[in-house]
Amino acid sequence: MLRFCVSIFLLTIFSLAILSHNAEAKLFQNSYVSFELPPNWECKLDGTEWVCVSKFSKDAKEAIIILTAKEVGPTDTFGAYVTHLKTPRNLPDKTGKMQPSQALHVTKRLINSHEWVDSLHLGSEITSYYSRYLATIKHSLAILVTFSAHKESYTKYSSDFLKAIETLRVIASKDILAGSGSGSQPLGSGESMGIPVGEIDSGLTGGLPPEPNVNDMKTKLLALALLLVVIGIYLWRKKKN
Length: 241
Prior knowledge:
Strand content: 25-35%
Number of helices: 4
Helix content: 25-40%
Strand order of the largest sheet: 3-4-5-11-10-9-8
Number of strands: 12
Order of helices and strands: HEEEEEHEEEEEEHEH
CATH class of the largest domain: Alpha Beta
Structural class: alpha+beta
């Protein structure tokens, strides 16, 4: 019986390993950055911006990733990015009252040997959203990646965001602005740092949709394995006595 319990436990661990492998991230790449995302995310080019959403929340759009790049201008320096992201923004809430955003942290960091300004805000694009900004410069290109999620579901997507951030790489070539690369993409020309995501709030009025969660499945499988082990040990002891 003990051997049976051990076998069940090892089988469950093996199942968890397979589940984790199936949930492995896929590589997203455009002409200036690449990073990994879970397979349930999809990215599309929208004008001069790349917009990524989770297929599980596509209707309500409770989480979104936006990528944009433009030619470096006078305001595009790391010092200017830090100063800008330390400054709260005043935005109207749903009643029209102006509310200051909260700059929760702003720092410079290396991601895969490249320097970025990393900042987390609450209410900088819309009052109910956390937005994490990653801004950098490569050659003559300014790049901004924005991760935004509704505050009630940010933790649900934080692991997806973290995976993307940890694997984020700048791949822009020196001649990207000349359009000589075969994989060149349209680039923005604006000078603003913030990427508006206000349009994604309208889908949340009906409440947050349920989402299939890989972590929930892992927890259930592990709980089942432990339950089977307990039952096996109980039956083994009962038989022994």
